[in-house]
Automatic annotation (TrEMBL):
It comes from Bracon brevicornis. This is NAD-dependent epimerase/dehydratase domain-containing protein.
Amino acid sequence: PRLVVGAVYKHLGEMMKLLWGPELHMNTVHVRDVARAIWHVANREDTVGQIYNVVDEGDSTQGSICAIVSELFNINHDYWGTALSTLAK
């Protein structure tokens, strides 16, 4: 989703501004790991009706991800901060 958001802000020519702050921890996962998990679940009968969470062991933050997205799309980014983000709940 962050890549799509970055592309939209690039198209609009605006700064990418996100809720919360750069310290927000985010779960990430590689597409190969998702595919492996889907294959594993699809080939086992004992997985029917079970819930799985697939995530890597990285310590990704919104700041680290946004820095990469900003560089890829050559855009600036900023955050609304805690006070405004809390109101958005």
